[in-house]
Design a protein that fits this description.
The complex is a heterodimer.
Chain A (H helix, E strand, L loop, with lengths): L21 H21 L1 H6 L2 H18 L14 H22 L1 H7 L2 H6 L6 H21 L4 H4 L5 H28 L6 H14 L12 H9 L3 H14 L4 H5 L4 E2 L2 E2 L2 H24 L3
Antiparallel strand pairs in A: 1-2
Helix pairs in contact in A: 1-7, 3-4, 4-7, 4-9, 4-12, 7-9, 7-14, 9-12, 9-14, 12-14
Chain B lengths: L6 E10 L2 E11 L4 E5 L6 H8 L7 E6 L2 E2 L4 H6 L1 E4 L11 H11 L4 H14 L15 H13 L5 E5 L7 H11 L2 H5 L2 E6 L2 H4 L4 E6 L2 E6 L1 H8 L2 E7 L2 H12 L4 E3 L2 E6 L2 H11 L4 E7 L3 H9 L10 H13 L5
Parallel strand pairs in B: 3-8, 3-9, 6-7, 7-8
Antiparallel strand pairs in B: 1-2, 1-4, 4-5, 9-10, 11-13, 11-14, 12-13
Chain lengths: 295, 330
C-alpha cells in the first residue's frame, strides 16, 4: 500500500459547526446562481430560440392588430402618433421576462427529478440559499432575455436614451425577480413536472394577459380592473412602458392615459418598484419557509 | 483502543402515518469501519440512512453522527458527512470539474486548497483525463466514481453510500469496490452503506442484517456465517416431499424448501453427502455442499432469501435510467 499523501490523506478532523451563517449562505447563493448562469450560457441555442415568440408577437400580432385598430389618429389619443407596435414593444419585453423568469425558477423541479436538488439539500448550508440563489438565477436569465429585445427598438421606432435604458434595466430586474420568486415558491411544492400544464394555464397565462402588456389597463370593466391590479406583473409592465415611451419623447399627459392607475391616481414608477420588490420578498420568504421543512 | 463510536443509534423509530418503516434500531459504528446494512427492499435501509443524513426526521429515538445529534445539530452533521445517493445526483450539463467545484463551494472547502483537492479526488477515481468533459457523456460507472469522488471532496468523517452499485454490471461493480475498499485505510473515513447484494456485503468489516424495520443480527461476515454452523447442503431428489422427513432425520434439523430443492445445515458436509445419497428415501438427482454464505444467514434469520430479482419496479426504472442515460463509453 502506498503512503497516503496530500490534503486528502489527513485523518478527517471533526468540522465544528460555524457560528456565523451570513457568509456561508452568501457563498452558497453565489454558487447556485453561478450554476444557473453557466447552464444558461452553455445553452445559447435556447436563448436564440426563445426570441422567436416575442418576435412573432411584435411583428405579426402587433402589425395585424395595429392595422385592425385603424390608422386613424394615434394609439393613446391626444394627437399622439404612437403606433400599436410601439405600444406593445415594452409589453413584449415584459412578456419575455415574465415567461423566462417563471420557467427559469421552475428548473428546481427538474433538479428535483434528476436528483441534483438532493446534493444541495444535504449540504451544510441554510436552505434559504437554495431559494434565493434560484430566484436570482432565474431573474438574471430573464433579464438578459428581455434586454436582448432592446436591439429591436430602432426597427419598431422607439428611441432609446441612456436614462431610459438604465431605468429599463432596473425595472427588468425587479419584474424578473418578483416573478422568478413566484416560480421558486411554486416549485418548492411541486414534486414532478406533471403539474406544469396547470401552472402554465391557470397562472402564467392569466398573469400575462392581465398585465397590460397588450392593452392599456384603463377603461376596463370593474371586474377586470380589479384583477389587473392584483396581477403583480402589471406593476412591471407599466413602468417599462413609461420609461421607454417617455424617453422616446411622448408627452406625459398622453402617457398618463395609458398608465396604471388606482382610482384616478397615476402610480409613480418608484411606488411600482416598491410594490414589485415587496411582492418578490414576501413570496421568496414563503418559498424559504417551504424549503426549510424536513419530513 | 476504545473510542467514541462514529455513529450511535438508539431505539430509532420512523413512522409514516400508520406504517412503521423503522421499528426500534440500535447500532454503533466504529471509526474506520466499513459498515454494511444488508436487507431486502423496503426493509428500512434507506429510511435509516436518510435519518442519519438529516434528510428525514425520526419519529422517536436518537442518532448521533460524528458526535452530533442528527436532529438538533443537523448542520454540524452535514458538514461531517459525504453522501452517495441511490439515484444519480450530478448536474449532467456541467463538466466533472464543475460539479466538484460546486460541491467545494457549498461545503466550504477553503479556496487555497480547492483546486488541489479536486485534482486529488479526480485522480483517486481515475477521471483526471475526463475532468473537463460534460457528465452527460459519462457511462454509469464513471458517474458513480465521480459521485464517490464528490462525496470524499470535503474530507468527511463518514461516507454514506445508499446502494452504491445498484444497476451497474458486475465488472463495473468490482471496479467501484476497488476504490471503496481502500478509503478507510488511506483516508481514515468511516463508511456506512446499504446494499441488497450479498457479494457486496462481503467487503464490509461488519454487517447489520435488517428486515421489516428491525435489525436481525450484527457481526462480521464470518461471525454471521458461523451462526449457520457447518456446511450448507442443497439436494434435489426425484420426490422431495417423500424424502423430506428422512433428510430431516439424517441432518437433525428440518430442511428449508428453496426453489425445488431442499437445503439443510450439517456440521460436516463431506461425511454427510454419502449417507444422504444412500438413505434419502428417494432418488437423489443432484447434491452440492458449500461453506455458508450471507444468503444462508439471511435465510436462516428470516426464512426468506434475498434475491437480486427482488428488485422492484422502481429499481427497474433506475436500471433502465442508467442504461439509457449512460451515454457512450470511452
Amino acid at each position: 500500500m502506498t503512503t497516503p499523501n496530500g490534503v486528502l490523506a489527513r485523518a478527517p478532523s471533526i468540522t465544528q459547526p460555524r457560528s456565523g451563517r451570513v457568509w456561508p449562505t452568501l457563498r452558497a447563493i453565489y454558487i447556485i446562481w453561478y450554476r444557473d448562469i453557466l447552464r444558461f450560457w452553455r445553452d445559447r441555442m435556447r436563448l436564440l430560440g426563445s426570441l422567436a415568440q416575442p418576435l412573432l408577437f411584435l411583428i405579426v400580432f402587433g402589425t395585424g392588430l395595429g392595422s385592425a385598430l385603424g390608422g386613424a389618429g394615434g394609439f393613446g389619443g391626444g394627437g399622439s402618433t404612437l403606433s400599436y407596435t410601439q405600444f406593445i414593444f415594452p409589453g413584449i419585453i415584459g412578456m419575455s421576462i415574465l415567461f423566462s423568469a417563471i420557467f427559469g425558477a421552475m428548473s428546481i423541479v427538474w433538479d428535483r427529478e434528476f436528483g441534483f436538488l438532493k446534493e444541495v439539500l444535504v449540504a451544510p448550508i441554510d436552505r434559504s440559499a437554495v431559494a434565493i440563489g434560484k430566484a436570482l438565477g432565474g431573474a438574471t436569465q430573464a433579464m438578459v432575455q428581455g434586454l436582448i429585445l432592446l436591439v429591436l427598438a430602432p426597427v419598431v421606432g422607439v428611441q432609446l436614451t441612456v436614462t431610459s435604458v438604465l431605468l429599463v434595466i432596473v425595472f427588468s430586474f425587479l419584474l424578473a425577480f418578483s416573478l422568478s420568486s413566484l416560480g421558486v415558491l411554486i416549485a418548492s411544492r411541486m414534486t414532478s413536472m406533471q403539474g406544469f400544464q396547470v401552472v402554465m394555464n391557470f397562472l402564467m397565462m392569466p398573469i400575462f394577459f392581465l398585465s397590460g402588456s397588450l392593452f392599456p389597463l384603463q377603461g376596463l370593466p370593474d371586474w377586470m380592473t380589479v384583477l389587473t391590479r392584483i396581477d403583480p406583473a402589471s406593476y412591471g409592465m407599466d413602468p417599462l412602458r413609461r420609461v421607454m415611451l417617455e424617453g422616446a419623447g411622448m408627452p406625459t399627459a398622453a402617457l398618463n392615459q395609458l398608465s396604471l392607475t388606482i382610482g384616478d391616481y397615476v402610480l409613480p414608477i418608484w411606488l411600482e418598484a416598491l410594490i414589485l420588490l415587496a411582492f418578490g420578498v414576501v413570496v421568496l420568504a414563503l418559498a424559504v419557509r417551504n424549503f426549510r421543512v424536513r419530513d | 483502543m476504545s473510542e467514541q463510536p462514529v455513529i450511535a443509534v438508539k431505539d430509532l423509530v420512523k413512522k409514516y402515518g400508520e406504517v412503521e418503516a423503522v421499528r426500534g434500531i440500535d447500532l454503533e459504528v466504529r471509526s474506520g469501519e466499513i459498515f454494511g446494512f444488508l436487507g431486502p427492499n423496503g426493509a428500512g435501509k434507506s429510511t435509516t440512512i436518510n435519518i442519519l443524513c438529516t434528510l428525514v426526521k425520526a419519529t422517536s429515538g436518537s442518532a448521533h453522527v460524528a458526535g452530533f445529534d442528527v436532529d438538533d445539530q443537523a448542520d454540524a452533521v452535514r458538514a461531517n458527512i459525504g453522501l452517495v445517493f441511490q439515484d444519480p445526483s450530478l448536474d449532467q450539463q456541467l463538466t466533472a470539474r464543475e460539479n466538484l467545484e460546486f460541491h467545494a463551494f457549498i461545503y466550504d472547502v477553503p479556496a487555497a486548497i480547492r483546486k488541489q483537492r479536486i485534482d486529488e479526488v479526480l485522480e483517486m477515481v481515475e477521471l483526471t483525463d475526463r475532468a473537463d468533459s460534460i457528465v452527460l457523456t459519462f457511462s454509469g460507472g464513471m458517474r458513480r466514481r465521480l459521485e464517490i469522488a464528490r462525496g470524499m471532496l470535503h474530507t468527511p468523517h463518514v461516507l454514506f453510500l445508499d446502494e452504491p452499485t445498484i444497476g451497474l454490471d458486475p465488472q463495473t461493480r468490482r471496479h467501484i469496490w476497488s476504490y471503496l475498499a481502500d478509503l478507510p485505510k488511506r483516508h481514515g473515513v468511516t463508511i456506512f452503506m446499504t446494499t441488497h447484494y450479498m457479494d457486496e456485503a462481503e467487503y464490509c468489516d461488519r454487517i447489520a442484517i435488517i428486515d421489516q424495520g428491525k435489525i436481525q443480527a450484527i457481526g462480521t461476515p464470518d461471525e454471521l456465517k458461523a451462526m449457520v454452523g457447518g456446511d450448507v447442503v442443497t439436494v434435489t431428489t426425484a420426490d422431495n416431499e417423500a424424502a423430506f422427513a428422512q433428510i430431516a432425520a439424517l441432518a437433525g434439523s428440518e430442511p428449508i424448501r428453496d426453489n425445488g430443492s431442499l437445503r439443510v445445515e450439517v456440521p460436516d458436509g463431506a461425511a454427510f453427502v454419502p449417507r444422504l445419497v444412500r438413505e434419502a428415501g428417494a432418488e437423489v438427482t443432484s447434491v452440492q455442499f458449500r461453506r455458508p454464505s450471507l444468503d444462508d444467514v439471511f435465510l436462516k434469520l428470516t426464512g426468506r432469501a434475498i434475491r437480486e430479482e427482488e428488485a422492484g419496479s422502481k429499481d427497474m426504472m433506475r436500471i433502465m435510467g442508467r442504461a439509457w442515460g449512460g451515454g457512450r463509453r470511452r
